[in-house]
């Protein structure tokens, strides 16, 4: 076969691959746009500034949890404890600031560090105690944290937080909620972290092939501990935003939020097998869930039915992903 | 390849169906055009009690010729979802909003910003701009329950109380009322334990109580689900213990008719929903609405259970 | 049109493409009962696609398939199985926790009565024993737990399974690639027995000696075309290679000899797990040292111990006369050691990452700026440089490692280690499963490394490769070094003797 022929064949293959890359990169975004279009047609109130800002605000807690969740999932792990950590973090913050009357900054510090500390514990259980899978270690801490959250105040809620604590979840800059601005800042930070730092790349490497990563000199334990600590920290941060939105902390806060966070990450195109997934995909995943919930609320669709729809979307999103991968593997 | 396309279109068709179904149920609720609209956000729509509230609210809408939307999360633990639902209802600018807050404090920030009349039903919240609170006087309901139980026992008998989740103000008030009534009648309360308003939990809580005190003659439970759980534990031991519940759910009333549950203090969820919408319309029209409205309680025993049962069955239809 | 009745299988004008990528461009193949038919071609020539069409895993786009003279349509793997086509894959499809006979009847267990009745263990066991005996195996094997058997015996179990299915054609996809020398011989015997029973075998292999020994006819594929079908006995291996790569290879082993320098690498008293005595050896600049031995002789374990991949108790490692402390792969990399593992996909590559990610993965420090951010430009440039130098194809850093052929994947792994500026390169079976052209390129790279002053150690089970490329060979048995031979004194016989202890 002649040289020229080989080249044109390669070009065709290249073009095809470029097309697939675009689809795989923007698949979730296309989904979000289609969804928005459908809901705009169905409900006149949907595409109004007021409602878009509602979506931004409503998505922020899940968006913060989801970006934390992305890291364990990238390493082929999972963090089931984030919902409970959120509750424990805000209960502790409530005790420090409301019940004990200490400075709000100290409360914020407590909130974030309780999350991070439990996240660190998740990492230690996984790497040093060698529990077989993070599903188990985080299932354990999920129950432990929820239990403590209920015990500390005898299950009573805490209300009346100082303004400084409420700021993130409550305030607006112009029409834009501060909580969503926080989401944007956090996501930019995570994007840089995952794509432009050594640790970020190691996270992908560990998820893609742990043995290859280890033999390439990567300290897997260290990276995993960082991953779970960050995930826990994000639970604390999401809690802070939640307290701002509702001016109260209650021990059943964040119940089953880990599942919404996982859903956002998966809808955003990350692979449960690890090594594949992006920050922007996760943001779109979180937005898709928020847009669906909001849109269905506007259409007065019952909550039971909303669950069904979101379940279907998760399956559909992953199914599209599976089709895509099956294709790219055959080629 | 063909196979994939087929699968794809099946998936797409399914999604389409889902969305269509969604928009249909939406249009049903948004019937009229120039009528007033009242949005009702409840704790959940997935338990019998809240179905009665929903039925009452919708009946009021029909009778008054206004458009009523009733929504609520999947369960009473979905606190943030309720807050989001309130936000989403407010963004559609209803004439008035009727809310039953799951966690009273959590709805305050979002409702404070509301520029329409806000009425609370069933559970009160510390909200400055609320138009009214319509709900059972829980202390009174508990007191009635205690009185009913005492009337079935002898002075000096021992009784137990099964309370709701710690920090649940409604059930706490009921327990306080019941205790007061039992004390006045000279009944000794030997045990008080929480069972989080849950039937199964109430059953095991009661089993534990009976381990220590097998001479108990009566039990007051702060809601009907717990009362039915308690009853199961008692029946398993073959003891004759009078059990009184609170709420007046269909299941409880049926149990009373069957001669199992001794009685219940029925709240009026149907009335709460009805009154909530009715007064919301009054507020929209600028009429004066009372700040606090008591929703009546009713003592249900075997005598009047049949009547209550028929009423409950009617409204669920 | 009908096929020829004397052929068991006949494929005519088979075409297959994925998207716009034409993989098979009209392939003819005929197989007679009782023959060993070899399929030879470089990676990407279309062998595996052709096999997948034959086993019903893929559907052909055009062409006809005749089975015993009748046209057939193979829609699913079950169709192929029903006709009597069985396949022994490289990666075995077995469940190690189950017994041998249970594996043989996996998914089609015999029942005593109707669908819901109890399993008929007795008949299954007897049937399994009969087939194992047919392959010259002890019938007692049937009751062993499969996971306890070696790779070779596991493969024989798969073949026994094919026999219980009354297979008339058995496809073997590089069956000897992970077997020890003894196991290979056992397999050869087994193939000959199958032949005698009139069972045809479609044999895929890169090993020319093996083909020469077993094959009756050979079909050579290149770029999706069938080039030739030749009788094995009367043609020459060099001709095959020329047909396969489309040009004549100057040499199979481009050995270069350099002047021997001072000692650069030394291992002292290193204990390999399970060995009776510690291992010591040294490597000088200018030489390639081969490590030979049977599978399980402890060669990979030795390499992993040197590299810090497995914990080791004692032993010292010296580079340029200075001791280096190695407790983890990181320490080894920092000390300048590179370990090109045997299992590229399992231990070397991130299949879902791009080439630049893979190439720079082991030396991220180099690309991290003071701000702790990575310089993506530098990473790309460095990757491009290696892709150019090692002639990695396709030469596109945006490609995922998954999309490369075996030979090119191996080059990516080597690039990763070149990027770490390593001085000591340990290659573990570097040419396993890659085609002849790529093999030569890997050998040339080794020459280059030695020329540029690196230490090169090559673990290999291929004796020709050891004899063709190394200056010295260490032979291992049971975790010990049993011979240290200059290549002039090394012969197949001497190496085998040291390896088997016979």
TrEMBL record, chain A:
Principal location listed in the UniProt entry: membrane
InterPro entries: ABC_transp_permease
Membrane topology: Multi-pass membrane protein
Annotated Pfam families: BPD_transp_2
Transmembrane segments: 22-42, 63-93, 105-126, 147-166, 172-194, 223-243, 272-293, 305-323
Location in the cell: Cell membrane
Name this protein carries in UniProt: ABC transporter permease
The entry's keywords: Cell inner membrane, Cell membrane, Membrane, Transmembrane, Transmembrane helix, Transport
From TrEMBL, chain C:
Keywords for the protein's UniProt record, in alphabetical order: ATP-binding, Nucleotide-binding, Repeat, Transport
Boundaries of every ABC transporter domain copy: 9-248, 260-499
A family per Pfam: ABC_tran
Domain of life: Bacteria
UniProt xrefs under Gene3D superfamilies: P-loop containing nucleotide triphosphate hydrolases
Molecular function GO terms recorded: ATP binding
InterPro entries hit by this protein: AAA+_ATPase, ABC_carbohydrate_import_ATPase, ABC_transporter-like_ATP-bd, ABC_transporter-like_CS, P-loop_NTPase
Listed name of the protein: Sugar ABC transporter ATP-binding protein
Organism this protein belongs to: Anoxybacteroides rupiense
């Amino acid at each position: 076969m002649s040289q020229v022929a080989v080249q044109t064949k390669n070009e065709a293959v290249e073009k095809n691959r470029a097309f697939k890359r675009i689809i795989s990169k923007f698949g979730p975004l296309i989904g979000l746009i289609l969804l928005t279009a459908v809901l705009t047609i169905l409900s006149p109130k949907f595409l109004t500034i007021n409602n878009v800002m509602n979506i931004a605000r409503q998505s922020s807690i899940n968006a913060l949890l989801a970006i934390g969740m992305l890291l364990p999932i990238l390493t082929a792990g999972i963090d089931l404890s984030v919902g409970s950590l959120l509750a424990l973090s805000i209960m502790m913050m409530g005790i420090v600031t409301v019940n004990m009357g200490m400075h709000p900054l100290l409360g914020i510090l407590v909130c974030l560090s309780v999350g991070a500390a439990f996240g660190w514990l998740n990492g230690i259980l996984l790497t040093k105690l060698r529990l077989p899978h993070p599903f188990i270690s985080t299932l354990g801490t999920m129950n432990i944290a929820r239990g403590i959250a209920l015990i500390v105040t005898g299950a009573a809620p805490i209300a009346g937080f100082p303004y400084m604590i409420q700021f993130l979840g409550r305030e607006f800059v112009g029409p834009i909620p501060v909580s969503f601005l926080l989401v944007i800042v956090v996501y930019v930070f995570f994007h840089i972290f995952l794509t432009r730092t050594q640790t970020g790349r190691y996270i992908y490497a560990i998820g893609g092939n742990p043995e290859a990563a280890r033999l390439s000199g990567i300290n897997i334990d260290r990276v995993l501990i960082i991953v779970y600590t960050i995930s826990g920290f994000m639970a604390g941060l999401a809690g802070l935003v939640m307290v701002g939105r509702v001016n109260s902390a209650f021990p059943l806060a964040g119940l089953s939020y880990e599942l919404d966070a996982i859903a956002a990450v998966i809808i955003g195109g990350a692979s449960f097998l690890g090594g594949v997934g992006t920050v922007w995909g996760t943001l779109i995943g979180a937005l898709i869930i928020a847009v669906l919930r909001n849109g269905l609320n506007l259409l007065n669709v019952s909550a039971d039915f909303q669950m069904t729809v979101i379940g279907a979307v998760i399956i559909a999103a992953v199914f599209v992903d599976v089709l895509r991968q099956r294709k790219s593997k055959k080629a | 390849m063909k196979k994939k396309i087929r699968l794809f279109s099946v998936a797409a068709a399914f999604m389409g169906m889902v969305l269509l179904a969604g928009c249909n149920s939406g249009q049903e609720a948004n019937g009229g055009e120039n009528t007033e609209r009242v949005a009702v956000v409840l704790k959940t729509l997935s338990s019998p009690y809240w179905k009665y509230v929903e039925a009452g609210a919708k009946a009021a809408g029909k009778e008054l010729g206004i458009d009523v939307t009733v929504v609520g999360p999947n369960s009473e633990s979905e606190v943030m979802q309720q807050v989001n639902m309130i936000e989403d209802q407010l963004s559609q600018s209803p004439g008035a909003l009727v809310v039953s807050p799951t966690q009273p404090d959590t709805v305050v920030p979002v409702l404070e910003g509301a520029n329409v009349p806000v009425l609370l039903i069933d559970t009160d919240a510390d909200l400055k701009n609320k138009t009214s609170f319509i709900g059972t006087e829980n202390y009174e309901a508990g007191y009635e329950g205690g009185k009913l139980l005492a009337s079935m026992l002898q002075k000096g008998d021992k009784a137990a109380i099964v309370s709701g989740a710690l920090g649940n103000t409604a059930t706490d008030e009921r327990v306080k009322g019941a205790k007061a009534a039992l004390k006045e009648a000279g009944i000794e309360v030997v045990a008080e334990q929480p069972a989080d308003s849950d039937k199964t939990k109430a059953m095991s809580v009661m089993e534990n109580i009976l381990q220590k005190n097998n001479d108990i003659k009566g039990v007051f439970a702060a809601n009907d689900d717990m009362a039915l759980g308690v009853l199961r534990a008692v029946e398993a031991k073959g003891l004759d213990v009078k059990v009184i519940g609170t709420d007046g759910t269909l299941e409880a009333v049926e149990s009373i008719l069957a001669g199992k549950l001794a009685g219940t203090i029925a709240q009026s969820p149907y009335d709460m929903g009805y009154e909530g919408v009715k007064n919301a319309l009054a507020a929209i029209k600028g009429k004066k609405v009372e700040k606090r409205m008591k929703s009546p309680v009713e003592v249900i025993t075997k005598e009047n259970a049949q009547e209550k049962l028929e009423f409950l069955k009617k409204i669920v239809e | 049109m009908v096929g020829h009745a004397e052929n068991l299988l006949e494929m005519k004008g088979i075409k297959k493409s994925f998207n716009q990528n034409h993989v098979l461009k009209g392939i003819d193949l005929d197989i007679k009962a009782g023959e060993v038919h070899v399929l030879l071609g470089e990676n990407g020539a279309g062998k595996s696609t052709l096999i997948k069409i034959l086993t019903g895993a893929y559907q052909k786009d055009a062409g006809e398939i005749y089975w015993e003279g009748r046209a057939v349509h193979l829609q699913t793997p079950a169709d192929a199985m029903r006709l009597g086509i069985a396949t022994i894959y490289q990666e075995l499809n077995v469940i190690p926790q189950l017994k041998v006979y249970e594996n043989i009847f996996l998914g089609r267990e015999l029942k005593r009565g109707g669908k819901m009745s109890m399993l008929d263990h007795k008949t299954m066991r007897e049937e399994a024993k009969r087939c194992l005996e047919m392959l010259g195996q002890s019938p007692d094997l049937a009751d062993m737990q499969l996971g306890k058997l070696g790779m070779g015996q596991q493969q024989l179990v798969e073949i026994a399974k094919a026999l219980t299915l009354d297979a008339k054609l058995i496809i073997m996809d590089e069956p000897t690639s992970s077997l020890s020398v003894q196991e290979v011989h056992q397999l050869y015997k087994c193939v000959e027995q199958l032949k005698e029973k009139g069972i045809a075998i479609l044999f895929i292999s890169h090993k020319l000696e093996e083909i020469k020994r077993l094959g009756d006819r050979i079909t050579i594929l290149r770029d999706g075309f069938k080039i030739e079908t030749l009788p094995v006995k009367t043609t020459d291996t060099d001709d095959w290679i020329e047909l396969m790569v489309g040009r004549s290879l100057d040499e199979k082993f481009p050995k270069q000899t350099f002047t021997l320098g001072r000692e650069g690498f030394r291992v002292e008293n290193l204990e390999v797990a399970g060995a009776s005595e510690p291992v010591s050896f040294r490597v000088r600049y200018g030489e390639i040292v081969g490590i030979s031995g049977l599978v399980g002789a402890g060669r990979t374990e030795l390499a992993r111990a040197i590299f810090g991949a497995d914990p080791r108790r004692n032993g010292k490692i010296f580079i340029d006369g200075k001791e280096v402390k190695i407790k983890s792969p990181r320490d080894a990399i920092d000390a300048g050691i590179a370990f090109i593992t045997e299992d590229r996909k399992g231990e070397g590559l991130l299949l879902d990452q791009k080439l630049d990610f893979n190439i720079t993965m082991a030396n991220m420090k180099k690309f991290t700026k003071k701000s702790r951010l990575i310089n993506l430009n530098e990473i790309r440039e460095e990757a491009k440089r290696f892709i150019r130098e090692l002639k990695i194809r396709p030469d596109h850093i945006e490609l995922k490692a998954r999309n490369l052929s075996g030979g090119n994947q191996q080059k990516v792994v080597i690039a990763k280690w070149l990027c770490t500026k390593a001085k000591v390169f340990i290659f573990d079976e570097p040419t396993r499963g890659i085609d002849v052209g790529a093999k030569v390129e890997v050998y040339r790279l080794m020459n280059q490394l030695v020329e540029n002053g690196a230490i090169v150690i090559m673990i290999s089970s291929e004796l020709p490769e050891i004899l063709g490329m190394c200056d010295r060979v260490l032979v291992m048995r049971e975790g010990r070094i049993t011979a240290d031979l200059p290549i002039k004194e090394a012969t197949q016989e001497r190496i085998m003797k040291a390896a088997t202890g016979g």
